């Protein structure tokens, strides 16, 4: 990971000071670096030790960071990882344009791999993520969203880059198609579980730990799984309260909604859905060699369910 950070620092070097300032501001915010770590762990599990793993780990982090910059503008977010978002600190135009810079720099770096399959995976992932962002925008303030539509968004918007990260490791290692698919399944399942738990934390987390304002999803009109399940389980009156809050993007009744979500068992059911995805990820690891790196991947999937930030 230290080598990935070195690549990131080198590739952020640009003659435009504002680009460097905004990029370093968000990348230095103390993120989990989960996607690069996945790529490195999977590369180790498959026995690949080449330098391209560092380059492509930096690429997926740049793509992820670009999506964060754009997301925060679209969502009008003011807090991420416990401090002001880039758009709050530098303004929306700078955030959007620096996000574009990170996308384009990532595509420059992809060329270093000199591998058309790598380009194909990352180009597809970037496109699917963009589709997921638009799908989520279309679903804002839609209280009729069901679990299948919710999963479609997060598998596009969040899980796709997890999937690409683990699939890239298989390509670098020259793995068989079956192993490549198992790696991709692991990444997709882990990414889905990660986002489902993230949605739980919007109603069960501690703002000082999560680094974001509680109720942000509701304010943005997002019908996430805790709310979807709560509406299915609650009384007609309580369901109507949640539905109206989603449609209006109103957090005035947030304490009452949190109480409904908890009383209906929607949080436990949402955690169970995340656990099922984590188990799917663990099952995919059976196709990998057993070593310290694959054990690290197993531990990551198991610990994800205990996530609090």
TrEMBL record:
Keywords: Magnesium, Metal-binding, Transferase. It comes from Variovorax robiniae. It holds the Pfam family polyprenyl_synt. PANTHER family: ALL TRANS-POLYPRENYL-DIPHOSPHATE SYNTHASE PDSS1, GERANYLGERANYL PYROPHOSPHATE SYNTHASE. CDD domains: Trans_IPPS_HT. Its cofactor is Mg(2+). SUPFAM superfamilies: Terpenoid synthases. Signal peptide: none annotated. Belongs to the FPP/GGPP synthase family. This is Polyprenyl synthetase family protein. It comes from the Bacteria.
């Amino acid at each position: 990971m230290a080598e990935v950070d070195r690549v990131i620092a080198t590739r952020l070097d640009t003659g435009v000071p504002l680009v460097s300032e905004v990029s370093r501001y968000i990348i230095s915010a103390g993120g989990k670096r989960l996607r690069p770590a996945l790529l490195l762990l999977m590369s180790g599990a498959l026995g690949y030790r080449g330098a391209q793993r560092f380059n492509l780990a930096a690429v997926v982090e740049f793509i992820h960071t670009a999506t964060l910059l754009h997301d925060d503008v679209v969502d009008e977010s003011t807090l991420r990882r416990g401090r002001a978002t880039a758009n709050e600190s530098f303004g929306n135009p700078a955030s959007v344009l620096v996000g574009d810079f990170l996308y384009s720099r990532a595509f420059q770096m992809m060329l270093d791999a000199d591998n058309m399959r790598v380009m194909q995976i990352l180009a597809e992932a970037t496109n699917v993520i963009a589709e997921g962002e638009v799908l989520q925008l279309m679903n804002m303030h839609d209280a009729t969203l069901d679990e299948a539509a919710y999963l479609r968004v997060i598998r596009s918007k969040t899980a796709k880059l997890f999937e690409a990260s683990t699939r890239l490791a298989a390509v670098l290692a020259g793995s068989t198609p079956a192993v490549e698919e198992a790696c991709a399944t692991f990444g997709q399942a882990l990414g889905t579980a990660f986002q489902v738990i993230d949605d739980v934390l919007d109603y069960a987390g501690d703002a000082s730990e999560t680094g974001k304002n509680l109720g942000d999803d509701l304010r943005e009109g997002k019908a996430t799984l805790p709310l979807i399940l709560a509406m299915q389980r609650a009384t007609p009156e309580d369901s109507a309260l949640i539905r109206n809050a989603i449609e209006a993007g109103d957090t005035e009744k947030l304490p009452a909604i949190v109480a409904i979500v908890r009383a209906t068992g929607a949080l436990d059911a949402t955690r169970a859905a995340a656990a099922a995805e984590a188990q799917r990820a663990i099952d995919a690891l059976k196709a990998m060699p057993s070593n310290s790196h694959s054990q690290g991947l197993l531990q990551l999937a198991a610990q994800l369910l205990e996530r609090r930030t």
